[in-house]
Automatic annotation (TrEMBL):
This is Choline/ethanolamine transporter FLVCR1. One of its GO terms (cellular component) is plasma membrane. The chain crosses the membrane at residues 85-105, 125-145, 152-173, 179-199, 211-233, 253-273, 309-328, 348-368, 380-397, 403-428, 440-457, 469-488. Residues 1-20, 31-63 are annotated as: Disordered. GO terms for molecular function: heme binding; heme transmembrane transporter activity. It is a multi-pass membrane protein. It catalyses: ethanolamine(in) = ethanolamine(out); heme b(in) = heme b(out); choline(out) = choline(in). InterPro entries: FLVCR1-2_SLC49-like (IPR049680), MFS (IPR011701), MFS_dom (IPR020846), MFS_trans_sf (IPR036259).
Length: 528
């Protein structure tokens, strides 16, 4: 396995807080009754410069020393590991394959309905099983992430993803719909161990000036899988209703190719993934890692999150937006072929356009957040533009011009899909120091619940009335989401700790719990 040797100092932190000039940020990192005695000097981060004049240690420095008995030479350093890029790349790739397996049936709903001899709602369940499996399993999965760590969770996600792909290879016959549904259910369980990892990987492995971009890239892998799922299946599996054997052969090429790739990625996950880097990448991570594991309570963390009113508002608004995206993705083929008969391939291309535009939006939003830290403002603006985009898409879908649908679908995807990493990072900010995996897991659970309801209702409206009726239903809910987003109080707790602005007990506490008073000259207030 690759060693962490040759790690570099965190560029963002060295730029923002020079080793010899800027003190560590003030942060009350102690649990009650565990204050470290003594002072001492904070050693320079660069190692070669002369230390600053003697001064009492900052509370964060004491917190970092607590686990090592107060020895100054054992103070945690903050550095960036080169391995972080490999971890991010491998995760993005197996997340890509999982998303590809989610959408590969829905974009060919008419083909698979004919092949297995089932109805459209039964094909829709091959997508919705991802959402159904997530809801009851998310709490055990987030507990596993917190209790057993990142590496085991990643291996479970990649391993189950490969297992589900191989099971699908046994369903290449018209009477084997139950087997393909069971295989898709295994992939759905794998998703539970995948969707909550982007914010955890970003926080544990990346520095404060790149954490939002890293989260966006991790989410982008899943989006890219959806994009490829829109593009490749219609090309690999053309609709040949008069030749079932040829159809089975084409489906087999898709299934076996997916299984081989997912197996390779499982082995790469075992080689590349480690629990955490040798040195924490940021001061907020250093504070959290200095806390003894026995002091962490998963149950208390869940309680704290549900006491956090801004997080509850984000939980609902994120569920609405992402659930609407899931519903549109699942029913896109049916919407397109209703108005453009025989255009299955173009339906896939429109889905590709929607997701690729969203990938661009995700990266731009991630870079923007790293640069400005305007989490609430950016989230609200993207939410409003998604609402406008869906309205335009809804009322131009039946004009008879596919080029118009390509353009409006791209605009919709840019904002709707670009919103996904915004929600993750905003949640981590307003819930710090709670576990990133727990907050993002709850966000995804909300998205799955809304996704199930929206897909069922929109599918019924589309079948009984028209695609316009189903899309208007989604527009009404997204408008509600705009109102909820506007009500969120922007309390950037993680950013404040990294910047040295906020005194925060390292112990996970509810939002309304007492914290040390902030300096009136340094207090950050939301712009909205």
């Amino acid at each position: 396995m690759v060693e962490d040797g040759g790690e570099e100092e965190a560029e963002g932190e060295s730029a923002e807080m020079p080793a010899a000039a800027a003190p560590l940020q003030r942060c009350n990192g102690f649990l009650p009754g565990k204050e470290a005695a003594g002072g001492g000097r904070a050693a320079p981060a660069g190692g070669g410069e002369q230390p600053a004049p003697a001064a009492p240690a900052a509370p964060e420095a004491e917190a970092m020393l607590a686990a090592s008995g107060g020895r100054p030479e054992a103070r945690l350093e903050t550095r960036l590991s080169r391995r972080r890029l490999a971890v991010l790349a491998v995760f993005s790739c197996y997340s890509l394959v999982n998303a590809f397996q989610w959408i590969q049936y829905s974009i060919l709903s008419n083909v698979f309905a004919g092949f297995y001899g089932v109805t459209f709602p039964q094909i829709d369940w091959l997508s919705m099983v991802y959402m159904v499996a997530y809801v009851p399993l998310i709490l055990p999965a987030t507990w596993l992430l917190d209790a057993r760590g990142l590496r085991l969770t990643a291996l479970l996600g990649a391993g189950l993803n490969a297992l589900g792909a191989w099971l699908k290879c046994g369903s290449l016959a018209p009477q084997r719909y139950p087997l393909t549904l069971a295989a898709q259910a295994v992939c759905a369980v794998a998703q539970v161990f995948i969707l909550g990892l982007p914010s955890r990987i970003a926080s544990v492995w990346f520095g404060p000036t790149e954490v939002s971009t890293a989260c966006a890239v991790a989410v982008l892998g899943n989006q890219l899988g959806t994009a490829i799922g829109f593009l490749l299946p219609p090309v690999l599996v053309p609709n040949t209703p008069n030749d079932i054997d040829l159809m089975a052969h084409n489906i087999g090429i898709m299934f076996y190719g997916t299984a081989i790739v997912s197996t390779l990625l499982f082995f790469l996950t075992g080689v590349v993934f480690e629990e955490k880097p040798k040195y924490p990448p940021s001061h907020s991570q250093a504070v959290l890692q200095s806390k003894p594991p026995e002091d962490y309570s998963y149950k208390q963390s869940i309680i704290n999150l549900f006491k956090n009113i801004p997080f509850i508002l984000l939980l609902i608004s994120y569920g609405i937006m992402t659930g609407a995206f899931y519903s549109v993705s699942t029913l896109l083929n049916q919407m397109i072929v209703t108005h453009y008969e025989g255009e299955e391939v173009n339906a896939g291309r429109i889905g590709l356009t929607l997701v690729v535009a969203g990938m661009v939006g995700s990266i731009i939003c991630g870079l923007w957040l790293d640069y400005t830290k305007t989490y609430k403002q950016t989230t609200l603006i993207v939410y409003i533009l998604s609402f406008i985009g869906l309205l335009v898409f809804t009322f131009t879908l039946d004009l008879g011009y596919l080029i118009v649908v390509f353009v409006t679908g791209g605009v919709l995807g840019f904002f709707m899909t670009g919103y996904l990493p915004l929600g993750f990072e905003f949640a981590v900010e307003i819930t710090y120091p709670e576990s990133e995996g727990t907050s993002s897991g709850l966000l995804n659970a909300s998205a799955q619940i809304f996704g199930i309801v929206f897909t069922l209702v929109q599918g019924k409206l589309t079948t009984d009335y028209s695609p316009r009726a189903g899309n208007i239903f989604l527009c009404a809910w997204i408008f509600v989401g705009i109102i909820l987003t506007a009500l969120i109080k922007s309390d950037l707790r993680r950013h404040n700790v990294n910047s040295g602005i906020m005194n925060l007990d390292v112990k996970a506490v509810p939002v309304d719990s007492p914290v040390e008073p902030e300096s009136t000259t340094l207090k950050i207030q939301s712009a909205l």
